[in-house]
């Protein structure tokens, strides 16, 4: 009788402790404010991604905290990443969403990086799928990859050295083995489309969905020749451009493939939401679970599509952490990749 | 097009005749006015970013009414800061400080405000009418203006240093060269090379032009008040002029308003120019073309207020031409407007012209009606805002510093900007004291980045054959002619001034520029 009482008493005590712990976690966020640091100006695509998330995630965090966005644009996401790594308190009340490129900047050991990407806590990312299509204007007469290869000095338009579209353009040129391609930078995305139509540049890569949304006449009126597609992740076909050959089919060596896979891996991670190193595990777990539930919410998926224009392609925090651990390319690949990201001549494929 | 333009315009107007649409427009106008009057703390991109998730759940025309209502008036009411406190407004309203503040100090703040609101309202209407008429004619203009043509236009703009330097050409050149040099700070987009970054992440993207302009003009103005120990309108001059004097000035200078509005529309339509240059180009045009400008501009000439304000407000119409008819956003605000249109199921560009031309006309009507409403609100507010100029310096100076620091912080939300604004403020104070023209430095800074970009793109795409493009040749001839005439005019004015008995007074007059 006495033993039974002890068992019941112990179980009861355990239940109370568990309930208290759960309550403590739940109540931590009650009445608190979570700040989401956006590594961008108000109104960019990244801001729209954050806006759609913050609108829904609140209800999945016990205690339903207030969520505010703070903008910290600059240095390709380095400013926001440096801030979250060095300055923000690891109390579970600060989340950051730097521009996705901040990961590769660290891998390439670019100046201005003061953070270690292996130490961040990753909550997940909404944009783990991307399709880049390489196309040239019809009047240039470059209707096939063979003609692109035979032409000298093909002018490829892009935003700026280091911008994702620039890097993708350089990757296509490198893997196609184009002869002395010229990279004309300093445009905004829509300006490159205008420059293509004016004949100021000959070719460009663009995200397939952006192309179909912004310049559908390129496809409908046959104004462009489409050459190849870069899929991230590999094998994830784009419904409209599934007929195009994947860029890896043009890669001639293992080294070239290694460079391509390095880009693909970084792009598959997308633009993650991160917490400062040292954030208590219980709070990080609450936020990870809240992000996961938000990503599965059909209402959020619809809002995301409306605000961002793309379909949601979620990546979990666990998947990101695994991908980052695997993101350790050999020195030779990094050196080639640096040349591709930079402004000098392309390396030999 | 499936319906005639007249029917589409009528249908576009009928779309607005619902109470909720009109209320949404008024709400937008109120938000836009508040944004303009707030001390740079809110920008229209932030307003759009906050409003977007809400309005995309509304009916399209109601949501469009709110967004257009807010953006179309945001520039109209932005002139009170430069006129009353000598603090540049947001980008697009910076040049207003050159003549607006001297007018305020001369006791003519109300007249300057009246002129700026009237010019802004007229500019908005001209931009709107252009948007309405541009539907069939925009595309060829945009295709005509490639990188080489834009470079020559920027070169033309730089020739305005000759105007902005006033009577000190060498100091003007030094200031402009320093501005050009500052524009090179940061990672160069074309080569990826870090220039003058010194391993500081803060400098990777260069220093914001808004912060430098705020510092160069705002801090010396605040110090000025602190040192003279007088409020803006407590300077030892009689108060003169009313809002309606400014209205009369604007109506009298209607041809200047039309010309500068077209400068604004053109800057809006051509992708890549942006709002940072619109006021300077218009101001430079006025300074080159207005009679007697060499003596009066920079010293409180109302035409120096009318020109930038009309251009800045007309630009919104030009922005919408490119956004709606071609589907190319001209900046963050129009990019967000496109996001909203896509969420409602419209595809901006040729398809929208073909299938939803009535919605485009609804935007046109909203732009015009909101512009008129914003102007009326501006007049109503002006009477209240002008009273700020009568506040004692002991209250005013701290408020001005708060405005300046808040404005600087709001640009990037970076505390380092506060140090930078103080440093450039001190520079501005000494530039003013030793008569180095600050507008010339701002012009160099604004145009430096654009010129480098366009020149690089021209050479990368065409080699040196870009110099032989017909439009480039025509623009070069126009730019050279204008430069030679301006220089000749100024030399003649200088000779006249030196032989006139007023020359001593003019030479001694403080150069507000």
Main beta-sheet strand count, sense and barrel state of chain A? 3 strands, parallel
Order of helices and strands of chain B: HHHHHHHHHHHEEHHHHHHHHHHHHHH
- Would you tell me the overall average pLDDT of chain B? 80
Report low-confidence residues of chain B grouped into runs of 5 or more: 500-513
DSSP strand count of chain B: 2
Q: What structural class do the secondary elements of chain B suggest?
A: mainly alpha
Low-confidence sequence ranges of chain A: none
Largest sheet of chain B: 2 strands, antiparallel
Keywords, please?
heterodimer; A: 349 residues; D-Maltodextrin-Binding Protein, domain 2; 2 domains; 3-stranded parallel sheet; 3-stranded antiparallel sheet; 14 helices; B: 513 residues; mainly alpha; two-stranded antiparallel sheet; 25 helices; 2 strands; 72% helix; 1% strand; globular
Descriptive overview:
The complex is a heterodimer of chains A (349) and B (513). Chain A is globular, with a radius of gyration of 23 Å. Chain A has a 3-stranded parallel sheet, sandwiched between helices. The model of chain A has no long low-confidence stretch (mean pLDDT 87). Chain A has 14 helices and 11 strands. Chain A is an alpha/beta fold and 349 residues long. Chain A has 2 domains: 15-127 and 270-313, D-Maltodextrin-Binding Protein, domain 2 (3-Layer(aba) Sandwich); 130-266 and 331-341, Periplasmic binding protein-like II (D-Maltodextrin-Binding Protein, domain 2). Chain B has 513 residues and is mostly helical. Chain B has one domain. Chain B is built from 25 helices and 2 strands. Chain B has a two-stranded antiparallel ribbon with strand order 1-2. In chain B, α4 (60-73) runs antiparallel to α18 and α15 crosses α17. Chain B starts with a helix and ends in a 5-residue tail after the last helix. In chain B, 59% of the residues are buried. Residues 500-513 of chain B have low confidence and may be disordered. The chains are: A alpha/beta (349), B mainly alpha (513). At the A-B interface, α2, α3, β7, α7 and α12 of A face α3, α18 and α23 of B.
């Amino acid at each position: 009788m006495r033993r039974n009482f002890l068992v019941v008493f112990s179980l009861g005590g355990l239940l109370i402790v568990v309930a208290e712990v759960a309550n403590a976690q739940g109540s931590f966020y009650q009445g608190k404010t979570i700040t989401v640091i956006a590594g961008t100006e108000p109104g960019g695509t990244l801001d729209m991604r954050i806006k759609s998330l913050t609108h829904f995630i609140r209800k999945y965090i016990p205690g339903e905290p207030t969520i505010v966005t703070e903008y910290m644009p600059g240095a390709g996401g380095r400013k926001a990443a440096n801030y979250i790594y060095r300055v923000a308190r690891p109390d579970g009340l600060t989340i950051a969403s730097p521009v996705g490129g901040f990961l590769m900047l660290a891998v390439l050991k670019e100046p201005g990086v003061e953070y270690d990407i292996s130490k961040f806590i990753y909550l997940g990312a909404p944009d783990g799928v991307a399709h880049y299509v390489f196309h040239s204007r019809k009047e240039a007469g470059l209707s096939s990859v063979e003609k692109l290869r035979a032409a000298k000095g093909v002018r490829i338009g892009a935003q700026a050295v280091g911008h994702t579209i620039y890097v993708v353009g350089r990757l296509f040129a490198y893997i196609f083995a184009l002869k002395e391609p010229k990279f004309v930078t300093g445009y905004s995305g829509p300006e490159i489309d205008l420059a293509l139509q004016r004949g100021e540049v000959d070719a460009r890569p663009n995200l397939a969905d952006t192309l179909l949304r912004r310049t559908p006449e390129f496809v409908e009126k046959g104004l462009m020749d489409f050459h190849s597609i870069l899929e991230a992740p590999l094998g994830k076909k784009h419904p409209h451009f599934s007929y195009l050959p994947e860029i890896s089919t043009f890669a001639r060596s293992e080294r070239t493939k290694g460079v391509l896979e390095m880009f693909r891996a970084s792009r598959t991670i997308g633009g993650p939401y991160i917490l400062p190193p040292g954030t208590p595990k219980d709070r990080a777990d609450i936020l990870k679970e809240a992000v996961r539930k938000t990503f599965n919410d059909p209402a959020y998926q619809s809002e995301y599509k409306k605000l961002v224009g793309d379909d949601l392609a979620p990546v979990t925090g666990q998947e990101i952490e695994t991908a980052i651990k695997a993101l350790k390319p050999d020195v030779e690949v990094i050196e080639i990749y640096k040349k591709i990201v930079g402004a000098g001549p392309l390396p030999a494929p | 097009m499936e319906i005639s333009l007249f029917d589409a315009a009528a249908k576009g107007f009928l779309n607005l005749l619902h109470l909720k649409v009109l209320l949404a427009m008024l709400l937008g106008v109120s938000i836009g006015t508040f944004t303009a009057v707030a001390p740079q703390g809110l920008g229209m991109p932030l307003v759009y970013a906050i409003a977007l998730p809400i309005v995309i759940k509304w009916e399209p025309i109601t949501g469009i009414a709110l967004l257009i209502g807010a953006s179309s008036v945001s520039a109209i009411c932005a002139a009170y800061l430069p006129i009353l406190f000598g603090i540049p407004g947001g980008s697009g309203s910076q040049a207003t400080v050159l003549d607006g503040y001297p007018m305020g100090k001369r006791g003519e703040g109300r007249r300057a405000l009246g002129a700026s609101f009237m010019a802004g309202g007229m500019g908005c209407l001209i931009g709107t009418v252009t948007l309405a008429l541009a539907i069939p004619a925009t595309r060829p203009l945009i295709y005509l203006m490639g990188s080489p043509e834009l470079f020559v236009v920027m070169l033309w703009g730089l020739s305005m240093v000759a105007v902005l330097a006033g009577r000190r050409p060498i100091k003007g050149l030094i200031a402009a060269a320093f501005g050009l040099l500052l524009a090179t700070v940061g990672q160069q987009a074309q080569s990826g090379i870090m220039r003058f970054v010194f391993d500081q992440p803060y400098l990777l993207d260069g220093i914001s032009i808004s912060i430098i302009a705020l510092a160069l003009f705002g801090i010396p103005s605040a110090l000025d008040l602190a040192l003279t120990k007088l409020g803006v309108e407590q300077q030892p001059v009689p108060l003169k002029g009313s809002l309606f004097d400014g209205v009369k000035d604007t109506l009298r200078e209607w041809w200047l308003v039309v010309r500068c509005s077209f400068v604004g529309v053109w800057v809006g339509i051509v992708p890549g120019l942006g709002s940072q240059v619109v006021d300077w180009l218009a101001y430079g045009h006025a300074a080159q073309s207005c009679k007697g400008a060499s003596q009066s501009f920079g010293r409180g000439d109302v035409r120096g207020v009318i020109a930038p304000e009309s251009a800045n407000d007309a630009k919104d119409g030009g922005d919408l031409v490119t956004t709606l008819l071609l589907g190319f956003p001209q900046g963050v605000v129009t990019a967000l407007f496109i996001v909203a249109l896509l969420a409602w199921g419209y595809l901006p560009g040729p398809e929208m012209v073909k299938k939803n031309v009535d919605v485009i006309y609804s935007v046109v009507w909203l732009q015009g009606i909101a512009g008129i409403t914003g102007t009326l609100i501006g007049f109503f507010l002006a009477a209240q805002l002008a009273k700020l100029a009568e506040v004692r310096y002991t209250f005013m100076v701290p408020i001005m510093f708060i405005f300046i620091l808040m404005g600087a912080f709001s640009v990037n939300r970076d505390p380092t900007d506060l140090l930078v604004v103080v440093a450039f403020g001190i520079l501005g104070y000494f530039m003013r004291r030793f008569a180095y023209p600050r507008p010339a430095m701002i012009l160099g800074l604004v145009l430096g980045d654009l010129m480098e970009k366009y020149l690089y793109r021209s050479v990368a795409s065409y080699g040196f054959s870009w110099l032989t493009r017909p439009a480039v040749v025509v623009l070069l001839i126009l730019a050279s002619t204008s430069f030679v005439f301006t220089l000749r005019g100024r030399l003649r004015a200088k000779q006249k001034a030196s032989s006139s008995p007023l020359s001593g007074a003019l030479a001694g007059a403080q150069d507000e520029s």
